[in-house]
Amino acid sequence: MSKPNLCFFTNSFPYGKGETFIENELNIIAPFFEVIYLFHKTKEGERRAVPFNVKLIYIETISSPAKNRSIRSVLMLINLVINELLYSRQKIMFLKNLKYNLSYALNGIYYSNQIMRALDSAVLKQAFFYSYWFFDWNFSLSILKRNRVITKNYTKAHGFDIYEDNGKPNYLPYRLFCLNNTDKVFTVSQVGANYLKTIYPEFSSNISCSYLGTLDAGINPEPSPDLPIHIVSCSNIVSVKRLHLIVEILKHCHKKILWTHIGDGKLKKDILLQIKSLADNCSVNFKGQLSSSRIVEFYNQTPIDVFINCSISEGLPVSIMEAISFGIPVIATDVGGTKEIVTSVTGYLIDETFNVKNIATLIQNLRDDNSFNRNAIKAFWLSNFSANYNYTQFLNSFK
């Protein structure tokens, strides 16, 4: 029996350094398909390796959606707007952001047309279509599904692409239209699934949680008592990750501390400036953006006391999956689906409005309370966030 084809839609992968968590998934699911047509919107940065049966399809971004003025496109736009005004739960928000929403719709129509041009009719009718984000690509695929160009439309949903009530840019237009034309929405957290089911109970049967996963790459070495307490964070350096709060925590630590951060971002200069106010007992090492293989190498070789995440918003952090796969305990804020991975076995779940002094005390007492067993943490990861198991189960949901 021949294998099916998959059309897989990402933002930038395999180019650049973003969407690193796609690498594991793609390598695991590739053998189950004849060809994977991987659609992406950028060619910036280094191209990462992909399995031999992956065919890259680059779709150039449109400079002005207003240029998309074919009769078919205009009729589709009118249909989308009427549908939104009649049935959306956020009609007022739609009208307040009308210019943005019209532009978004025209972009979606443009990309749906580009997808049709890139694939032959047999692939369009028979392949599985899968967007990694419940956002713009899924919107374009939903247009194709509504127009009966494609028959199988699936999407993952993470964080920003789930929650609707945070205002622009987190306002998500045409959501009901997408749900009506998407066969299955796979949220990366149970919290996300529950949210969508509560807002759209009529689509509950099409919404389910499908955890992401990481690979087993060993166990982190136990820290030596004569070395500084080593805390690690891994994220983009952006406001939502609140790295400035880690600096504030360190200001209240009197023991020797080493903080290593993996990642880069637009707020790096601001954080480095704040670090200058730290006392001599605190050392900081910013490693910048690292490849998945280099992160694995770092966790394999460098003793770490605790992984910390102070984010104000999350889906379910892959960075925490990576940490617990090495048996590293975690301190993380109770946002999004984080409570599903940070438990009494794996670490400390803290309030999003935590007291920095209390967390400083928690960190300094880590080696004394012996609350966490690295083998137990790893066992929890194996039962819940193993990439090989989770992605195989994910594929079993494709029909």
Describe the structure.
This protein has 399 residues and is of the alpha/beta class. It has two domains: 59-210, no CATH class; 229-384, Rossmann fold (3-Layer(aba) Sandwich), CATH 3.40.50. It is built from 16 helices and 13 strands. Helix 12 (318-325) links the parallel strand 11 and strand 12 (330-333). The chain is globular, with a radius of gyration of 22 Å.
Provide the descriptors you would attach to this structure in a database record.
399 residues; alpha/beta; Rossmann fold; 2 domains; 7-stranded parallel beta sheet; 6-stranded parallel beta sheet; 16 helices; 13 strands; 38% helix; globular
Strand segment tally: 13
Q: What's the alpha carbon Rg, rounded to whole Å?
A: 22 Å
Count of DSSP helices? 16
Structural class: alpha/beta
**Mind summarizing the main beta sheet?**
7 strands, parallel
Mean pLDDT level: 92
- Helix/strand order, N-terminal first: EHEEHHHHEHEHEHEEHEHEHEHEEHHHH
**Cα end-to-end separation:** 16 Å
* pLDDT < 50 runs, ≥5 residues: none
Secondary structure: elements and pairs:
Blueprint: E1 6-9, H1 22-29, E2 36-40, E3 54-58, H2 71-87, H3 91-96, H4 98-118, H5 121-126, E4 128-131, H6 136-146, E5 153-157, H7 175-180, E6 184-187, H8 190-199, E7 207-209, E8 229-234, H9 243-250, E9 257-262, H10 268-275, E10 282-288, H11 292-301, E11 306-309, H12 318-325, E12 330-333, E13 347-350, H13 356-364, H14 366-369, H15 374-384, H16 387-396
Parallel strand pairs: 1-2, 1-4, 2-3, 4-5, 5-6, 6-7, 8-9, 8-11, 9-10, 11-12, 12-13
What can be said about this structure in brief?
By secondary structure, the chain is of the alpha/beta class. It contains 16 helices and 13 strands.
